[in-house]
From TrEMBL:
Record key words, sorted: Endoplasmic reticulum, Lyase, Membrane, NADP, Transmembrane, Transmembrane helix
Family: Belongs to the sterol desaturase family.
Organism listed in the record: Oryza meridionalis
One of the GO BP terms on file: lipid biosynthetic process
Subunit structure: Homodimer.
Membrane-traversing stretches: 42-61
One Gene Ontology molecular-function label: oxidoreductase activity
Protein's name according to its UniProt entry: aldehyde oxygenase (deformylating)
Lyase in keyword set: yes
Catalytic reactions of this protein: a long-chain fatty aldehyde + 2 NADPH + O2 + H(+) = a long-chain alkane + formate + 2 NADP(+) + H2O
Fatty acid hydroxylase domain sequence ranges: 132-253
InterPro entries referenced in this protein's UniProt entry, alphabetically: Fatty_acid_hydroxylase (IPR006694), Sterol_Desaturase_Related (IPR050307)
Length: 278
């Protein structure tokens, strides 16, 4: 909800004419309560998760039917049956609606408290890009450690195993995980905006990113790592990064550990405990 009744009042408050985007934002958001603006996150997430992986999924299914190779896949030999796409999509959409949605709606007081703004002026493209870059770094760092913790025996067996059902990730499988994992991974995503508050439109952009499989196409450093992580399977104690790979580099989890000729047992390498995982 904007505190201006008319576009003229808004321009007076901003101290200049509105840009095209600001005029559109004014028309759209002037009479919508902030809480409702925040709630937009849920349909946006669902829409992005539905549409973004579609082109690559259709490409894969079509080439698969014609027995053509899949050049864009990191593990071209692995072919998912159409039922796997559907199962994956339905399961993640259900988690989005039944778990992520309610938590998003209930987290509004936190969004208020950290100072997410809805008014004018809109942030510039540069400001938005800088904020998203910070959020990516924060999320990558915290996400790395959460992922590492998820590979300890208890957490792996009860939560993270679901995400590892797919040994060769595809678009729809990227966010496919136990509902608890999807909720837990919301914290690193929220940590960035809590540290560096932004505009509501940046929140929309930012929270859709984890469900945007372009993060998992072979442009980012992390995709090969992550594919390798799935390829190795649940007992993998390496390549935990999702977007950047600096954490794996810093903590040495991009290399196989050989400590003074003394080979470390699997399950003990994550430094959190021991035991074997499947
Ligand atoms: C991590 O992934 C890379 C591929 O990006 C692979 O070459 C490397 O061996 C992996 N590291 C471990 C320890 O599995
Ligand atoms: Zn994992
Ligand atoms: Zn994964």
């Amino acid at each position: 909800m904007l505190p201006y009744a008319t576009a003229a009042e808004a321009e007076a408050a901003v101290g200049r004419g509105m840009t095209w985007a600001e005029a559109a934002w004014f028309r759209y958001s002037a009479s919508i309560p902030d809480y409702c603006l925040y709630c937009h996150n849920v349909p946006i997430l669902l829409l992005v998760y539905t549409l973004a992986p579609l082109p690559l999924a259709l490409l894969e299914l079509r080439r698969r039917r014609r027995h053509l190779p899949l050049p864009h896949k990191l593990q071209p030999g692995v072919r998912h049956p159409p039922a796997a796409f559907l199962r994956c999509y339905a399961a993640t959409a259900r988690v989005l609606l039944l778990a992520v949605g309610p938590v998003q709606l209930a987290s509004y007081p936190a969004v208020r408290a950290v100072g997410i703004r809805t008014g004018l002026p809109l942030p510039s493209a540069g400001e938005t890009a800088a904020q998203v870059a910070v959020y990516l770094l924060v999320e990558d760092y915290l996400g790395y450690w959460i992922h590492r913790l998820l590979h300890t025996p208890w957490a792996y067996h009860h939560i993270h195993r679901v995400h590892h059902e797919f040994t060769a990730p595809m678009g729809y499988a990227a966010p496919y995980a136990h509902w608890a994992e999807i909720l837990i991974l919301g914290f690193p995503a929220f940590a960035g905006p809590a540290i560096v508050p932004c505009h509501m439109t940046t929140i929309w952009l930012w929270f859709k990113l984890p469900f945007d499989p372009t993060k998992y196409i072979p442009l980012y450093g992390g995709v090969e790592y992550h594919d390798y992580h799935h390829f190795v399977g649940g007992h993998s104690q390496s390549n935990f990064s999702s977007v950047f790979t600096f954490c794996d580099y810093i903590y040495g989890t991009d290399r196989l550990k050989e400590m003074a000729g003394n080979h470390v047992e699997k399950g003990d390498e994550n430094g959190f405990g021991n035991g074997k995982q499947d």
